[in-house]
Structures are given as C-alpha cells and as structure tokens.
Amino acid sequence: MVLNEAAASPLRQASETLRQLHQRLVDNVGSEGVAQAIEGGVALFVVLLILIYLRGRFSKGARRRRAAGRRFRELARANALPAGDRLLLLAMARHLDLDEPGLLFVRRSYFEEAAEKGNFKPERVDVLRRELFS
Amino acid sequence: MPVQTTFQAVAGWPSAAALPYCEAALAEHHLEIQAPAYDILVAPHLLNRPDLIVLHFDTLVPEIRERLIQMGPVFFEVARKLIRAGSETARRAAFDLLGEMSGVESLKVLAGGLEDPSTLIRDRAARHIEKIALNYHYHLLNWQARKDPASREFVARHKGPMMEALEGLLRTWHFHGKDVAISVAIESGGDAYKHITGVVLNRQDSPLWKAFIKAMQAAHSAAMVDVLFRLYFEGPSKYRDVAVTIMHLRKDPEFAVALAEFLWKLPPDRLKILRGLKELPFKGVLEASADIPAASAIVLIDYIAGAELAGKERDLAIKAFLNSSHPEVKIHALKTFKRLNYPYIAELSRGCLVDPSDEVKFAAAELIVELVPTQKGKFLMGLLDSPHEPLRRFVMRHIAHLSVGRYLAAFADRDTTMRLFADQVGKRIDEATVEQVGEEIVRLEPIQRMRALRICDEIDVERELKPLIRQVLSDEQSALRPLLVQLLAFTGNREGLRHLLDLLAGGDLETKTLVIEALQEIHDMRFGAMFLPFLADPDAPIRRAAAQAVSTFGQAEARLILPPLIAMRDERLAVAAVNALGLTKMEGARETLNSRLAVESRPVVQQAIREVVGQWS
C-alpha cells in the first residue's frame, strides 16, 4: 500500500505538471481547442520520433551492421590489433564501401586495393599487412 | 600465423556468419589464406560444406587442388549431385572439377554435360572430354608403339570406363566435334568395334562417318588395321566397302608398317582366314614399297606369298618389293620367288646382278649359280671386278671353281703311285693358297681374265684347250702365263698339265723354250711340284719331262716329299719313289739313295736303288 502510494506520487506530479503546462498554453493562445490541437500535434511528433528511433535501432540492416562490427572487433581482438590499426582497417573498409569490414582480414586483394588507392600511409599499411597476412 | 588466428575465430561463429568469410578466402589466390578456409569447410564437425569448395574450384590454388584429390570420392560425389540439381554456376564448377581432377571414370558424366542447356557448360564439358580422351589416346599409342608398361597399366585400368563413355562421346560428336573420340575408337581396335559400327557408321555419309574415314586415313597403328579387317570381314557389305575404300586410299609406308605389325601379331586362326583372301585389298600400299621399312616389307612379302591369291597378282605384288631401298627386302623377295618356284626367277636374278647393293648382287649370284649353273660364268663374269670382296670371291669360286680337291680328283682314277704323289703334293697346299690364285685371276686384265676362265671351264681339250695353252705360252707379256700351271692343277685339268709336259718332251725348241719360260715364271716351288704324279706316267717321255720340270722348278718340294716315301712299307710305292728320285736326278738324290741302301732291308727296294744309282753312274 505504502509502495503503491510512493509509485503513484511521481505520476501525480507529472500529471500536475502537464495540467499546468496545458493551462499555460490555453492562457497563451486564448483558446482551449487550439491548445488541444497543438498538444495533439506535439504528441504525434514525439511518437513519430520514437518510432524513427526504434526503427533505426532494431531494423535488419542495423542488426547486420552491428553484427558486422562485432565480428570485426572479434577478429581484431583475436589478432591483437592495436586501436590505430583497427581504425586504419575500418578506414580501408569505408574506402571500399564494405558492409563487412571483417572481410579485410581474409581478402588480401581488397586490402591491397585499399592500400593502393586509399592514400593511406604506406609504412602503417606495411605494418598492418605483416600483422594480418605474414 | 595471423590468417590461421583469424580462421580459428571464424570457426567459432555460426555457419551463416562464417561461410562468407570462408568463401571470400577461397577467392584469394594465396595458399595461406585458402588452406584454413578449406579446412573449416571440409571438416564434418565444423561447416561441412564441400559443395562450396566445388563452387569455388576455379580459384583454388594447385596445393589445395592436390588436397582435394586426396578426398576425391567425396568431391566427385558432391560434383555429381551439383550437376544433377545445381544452378548453372554450380554445374559449371562441378564439370570443371570433374574435368580437371577426375579422369576417364568421369567421362560418362562429362558426356552428359554435352547435352546441358548452357552453351558455356557444353563447351567446357567438351574441352574436358577432349583433354581426358587425349591423355587416354596418348597412353594407347605409347603402349602400342613403345610398349611402355606405365601406359599399358593406365590403359588396362581405364579401358572399361573409357569404352563405357566412348559410346556417349561418339553419339554426342555432333555437339563437341572432338576427333579424339574417333581416334580413341580406332586405336582401341576390336574393343571399340561395336561403337564404330553402331554409332559412327550408323548413318552413311554423315559428318561423323566422314570424320571417321579421315581419321582412318591418318591413323597408322595395328589397331586401325584390326578395325579395317573387321569391317572387311564382318557385318553388311557397306562396312566392307568402307574398308576397301580406306585401304585403296592408303598408299603411305606408315600404313604398310601398321599392316605388317597387325599381320605379325595375328593369331594363326585369324591369319588363316586372312590368307584365304582371293584379292589383295591393300595393294595400293605397294606403290610405296620403296620406302617401306625392311622388317615390315618382309612380313608383307611372307603374307602375300602365303595368301591364296591368283598367281599373277601374287607375283606382281612380290615383285613390287624389288623396288625397295633395302637390300634385305630385295633378297627376301628373290628368295621368296625361288621358294614359290617362280618361272622367271633366273631372269629376275640376272636383273638383280646390276643392283646398286652388293648384298643383292651376291644373293642374285647365288641364285644364278643354283638355277643356271651352265651359264653362271657368262652372267657372273661382270662381277669379278666388284669391290665387294665376299662377292668377288664367291664369283671367282663359282666361275673358276679352283680347289686342291679337283687336283687330287684328277689323279683319283690313276694308278696308286700317281695318286700317292698327287696326295703328297696336295697336302702341301692349303685352300688359302688356292684362293690367292683366284685373286690373281681377278686382278688380270679383262682379256687375260677371259682366257683364264676359259682354261678353267670344261672345254674340249683338243679343239680348244691345247690351242689356248699354246696361245698363252706364246704371249711373253701375258700376266696369265705364270698362273697357267696353277689353273690347270686347281681345276683338275690333268690333260692340260700333261699337254705342257708333252710340249716339253716332244715340241720343237721354240715350244720347249716357251714352256720352260712359263715354268720359270712360277714363283712358288709347290706349284712346280704339281707335275710329280706324272713321274709315274706310263709314257716314258712324259715321265722324263715331268722329272725335268719337278727337279728344276719344284726341287725343294720334291726333296721334301720323295725321300720319306722310300721308307714306305708298301714295296711297290717305295720302289716308285726310288725311281722318281732317280728320274729327277736332283742334287743330293744319289746320297739320299745310298744312305737309304745302307739301312734298307727289303731286297726289292735294295735292288731298285742299286739299279737307279747304277744307271746314274
């Protein structure tokens, strides 16, 4: 009972805050109907934002990208790549528009193509080549 | 290794995540990248996806392909499944794998690829088939031509699958157009005969039919000949026509070699059938007889000689080999004609006496001697100048026929003393000495040589020999004169020798001088002693002339021969030897007789010695 009351109290406070905001809006626009229309529009906008966020967070492509990122990190960890090399590899993957950056660990031809055309520092590329393929 | 580390991590992922990494690795032409991916893909407890390896077969490095062969059955089975139910890419990859990695055993599956809806796959399948068939064809030829045991083993191992696939290859020939399929069928001989008749010759004048005829014209193996004769003997007449057409078209020596090899290897029962032919279907090849290798030509001659051909056709065919560039072939042809009792063999042999080869001339000369002994001198005379020593000797021997035996035989029917004296002289002369006399005749200039050979011949004594001897004696420059005694002696011409003594005993002074000159020219006393038997001649003047000739020109020999004869057990012969010594009146003969008298116990011999010595003084 005490717990229910404690939980209900913030709701009551939020409800009171919303009521005060509504009253202030009515006072400002001078019409109850217009104020309700504005409030409905704002609510709809917020719901839309939430939906957009949820889609971005849990879509198939996003999951794939995240999984690809995870695999890249796992391979980088397995090969004990330092942060600088990881970034370089990711930059190479971006340069090649690779959805699966981890493929650079096994596709040497991609690596060489990026190294050749990506304008990366040759000495860093050499070090990375040795770390990955030697 | 970093790549190894990467794939250790990949191996732990779910297959959906790991497969793209493995496939990506197989696309890289680096062993160190492909190898771990391959391991993960084939491992049954990991990804177990050998089909993906088949799909990426074209990018696999040779080392991985080697490893793939080690697991051949697994991959071949996967490839077959992909061919049955895969996409075009998968089918193409599977055909490539079978074509590259498998061998003859996959030919049947590959032949199926020739009917694939995809043009690309049909082309690839045809290319793989050609490669495998060419390899088999190479081993077939290598076995047939060089008897290479490795090739023999290869062919024996793959013959079954090859023959099984061959039918399909020939049936789909219009798709792939690979002539190697026809070549394999031809070189397989009897093994592929049913495919040849059932598929190749099924439709007359089809492109396949024409390609077969062309291939048969180019082939030169015994297997091809086997196919030809099967077509000739078996099946409908159209096959026989094909065989006859091909055999008529083949006029090259290589075909002759193939024919000979086929005939040589033929079992007796089949050879008997072949010999039963009343015609020579391959007579076109005789046009190349000049270039046919000797061994092959000899086999063909033997076949033709044994075949039941009409005499004229057979003789013409064998005669063609007299144009051969190989002496041994011509000799074999001549001998075959002799064996066949060819009526014109003597003429053929005479023709061969002018052959460029000495061996052929020799063989022809032998035949002439055997076939026309009465005219051998006339025909062989020209060969006395031959630089070929055995031939020259042979001709000399047969024209002049010089021998110690003939000298001995000339006195064989005379009395014992003459025979004994001839034997003693004969013992001192060997055949090599006789041959030297023959060589000297060869070295004479042609006219003198002709005269020499006339003397050697069996000519009439009164009408021809005596005038000839006088002619030779009277020619002071003649190189034949010093050989006169030897010639008469070694041809057993007793009459001739006696005629010389006759001239010495009863001729005028000029004639006697000529005879003595001729005897003086004898360089070897052994020949001077050849008159020794005439010391026992019934005619006293002849005995005296003989004694004169022997004591003057054969003294050393007589001294060696006669004294030992006095000691002979036979008293008659001992007395004859005493008388001979007495007749010769040689230097030291009296001392010899006196010393013998001192030890002689036989009264008859003692008496003879006393009489001879008494007449002397």
Shape of chain B: elongated
Integer tally of domains of chain A: 2
- What is the annotated CATH architecture of the domain at 401-616 in chain B? Alpha Horseshoe
Mean pLDDT of chain B equals: 90
Q: Return the structural class of chain A.
A: mainly alpha
Q: Say how many strands of chain B there are.
A: 0
Number of E-state strands of chain A:
0
Q: Unreliable stretches of chain A, pLDDT < 50, 5 or more residues?
A: none
Helical run tally of chain A: 6
Strand content of chain A: under 5%
The CATH topology name of the domain at 401-616 in chain B reads Leucine-rich Repeat Variant
CATH class descriptor of the domain at 401-616 in chain B? Mainly Alpha
Shape of chain A: elongated
Order of helices and strands of chain A: HHHHHH
The assigned structural class of chain B equals mainly alpha
Biggest interface and residues each: A-B, 18 and 21 residues
Distance between the termini of chain A: 69 Å
Describe this structure in words.
The complex is a heterodimer of chains A (134) and B (617). Chain A is mainly α. In chain A, 81% of the residues lie in helices and 0% in strands. Chain A is built from 6 helices and no strands. Chain A is elongated and about 75 Å long. The N and C termini of chain A lie far apart (69 Å). Chain B has a domain of 216 residues: Leucine-rich Repeat Variant (Alpha Horseshoe), CATH 1.25.10. The longest helix of chain B is centred in the N-terminal third of the chain and has 28 residues. The N and C termini of chain B lie far apart (132 Å). The relative contact order of chain B is 0.03. The model of chain B has no long low-confidence stretch (mean pLDDT 90). The chains are: A mainly alpha (134), B mainly alpha (617). The interface between A and B is medium-sized, with 18 and 21 residues.
List the helices and strands and how they pair.
The complex is a heterodimer of chains A (134) and B (617).
Chain A: H1 2-29, H2 32-58, H3 60-78, H4 83-95, H5 108-117, H6 122-133
Helix pairs in contact in A: 1-2
Chain B: H1 2-11, H2 15-26, H3 31-42, H4 50-55, H5 62-70, H6 72-85, H7 88-101, H8 107-113, H9 119-146, H10 149-171, H11 173-176, H12 179-187, H13 193-200, H14 207-218, H15 222-233, H16 237-249, H17 253-265, H18 268-275, H19 294-306, H20 311-320, H21 327-339, H22 345-352, H23 358-371, H24 376-380, H25 389-400, H26 404-410, H27 416-427, H28 431-443, H29 446-456, H30 461-474, H31 484-490, H32 494-506, H33 509-520, H34 525-528, H35 540-553, H36 555-566, H37 571-584, H38 589-599, H39 603-616
Helix pairs in contact in B: 1-3, 2-3, 6-7, 7-9, 8-9, 8-10, 9-10, 9-12, 10-12, 12-14, 15-16, 15-17, 17-19, 19-21, 21-23, 22-23, 23-25, 25-28, 26-27, 30-32, 32-33, 32-35, 35-36, 36-37, 37-39, 38-39
